[in-house]
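User: I've been trying to design a sequence by hand for this structure and keep getting stuck. Would you show me what you'd pick, starting by listing the structure so we're on the same page?

Assistant: Good idea, let's start from the same input. This is the structure you sent:
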């Protein structure tokens, strides 16, 4: 699932292929921007902002978001695409490389001075130069009655945490995702752990939160519903904890290590 670390790697890949080079092809396959052609424009920068990716070329910024299924591929010109053409939302080529964005949830072209419309609402980027743990902790504490599992997904709090990290952070802190922020422990501790997890994984293709690099051993609870907890052996449960816009967002948790209030002692955070 694309989260801040995935977008960080995508930006690094695209930056290495496109930055400093003029576009030899610009094919945007989104009706609203189908007539936009930046061919000949030099790509100045490629950067990640949380789950958003910005490609700055001349007076414009191409803003994309992977959502659930999106991916960027880079390959030599003329190479066969790994997905069928109808999945492509944008094709950007330079003399020695071609970048294709498949199944992207958002593709838009903005005037450079309008970037804030796309990313200005974001909190500090966990993997960005603007990272500020004090601001992120203040943001997290702002609504003490909000379930911590919802607050962690709010990109206005800190940018980059998605559902995988939401579930894993709650397990590692020994807190059920529905626990109010006020009862979930120090916001600074959540922020610090989130930063450490994403930094550890930002250059990894296979995300690891357990420290175990063996295949199938990378997560504590995410994607493990019905399997025994790696810490206590209790069967991992699954349910939903989402916002009004996305009410069915799945959560996985261990009922012993992460009890709801009144259900018993939580396992200590590492």
């Amino acid at each position: 699932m694309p989260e801040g670390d995935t977008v960080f790697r995508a930006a690094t890949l695209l930056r290495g292929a496109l930055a400093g080079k003029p576009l030899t092809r610009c094919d945007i396959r989104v009706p609203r921007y189908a007539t936009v052609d930046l061919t000949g424009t030099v790509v100045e920068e490629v950067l990640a902002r949380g789950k958003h990716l910005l490609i700055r070329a001349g007076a414009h910024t191409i803003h994309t978001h992977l959502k659930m299924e999106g991916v960027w591929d880079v390959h030599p010109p003329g190479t066969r695409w790994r997905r069928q053409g109808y999945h492509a939302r944008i094709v950007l080529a330079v003399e020695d490389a071609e970048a294709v964005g498949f199944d992207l949830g958002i593709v838009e072209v903005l005037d450079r001075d309008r970037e804030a419309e796309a990313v200005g609402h974001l909190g500090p980027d966990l993997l960005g130069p603007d990272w500020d743990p004090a601001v992120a902790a203040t943001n997290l504490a702002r609504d003490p009655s909000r379930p911590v599992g919802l607050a962690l997904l709010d990109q206005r709090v800190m940018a980059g945490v998605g559902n995988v990290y939401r579930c894993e952070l709650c397990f590692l802190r020994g807190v059920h995702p529905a626990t109010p922020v006020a009862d979930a422990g120090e916001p600074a501790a959540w922020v610090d752990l989130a930063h450490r997890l994403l930094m550890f994984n930002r250059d990894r293709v296979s995300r690891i939160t357990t420290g175990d690099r063996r295949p199938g051993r990378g997560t504590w609870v995410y994607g493990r519903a019905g399997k025994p907890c790696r810490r206590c052996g209790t069967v991992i449960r699954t349910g939903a904890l989402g916002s009004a816009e996305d009410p069915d967002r799945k959560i996985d948790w261990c009922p012993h290590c992460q009890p709801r209030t009144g259900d018993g002692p939580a396992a200590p955070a590492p």
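That's my pick for every position. To get oriented when you compare it with your attempt: The domain at 133-253 is CATH 1.10.8.50 (Helicase, Ruva Protein; domain 3). Helices lie at 4-18, 116-119, 133-141, 148-151, 163-172, 187-201.
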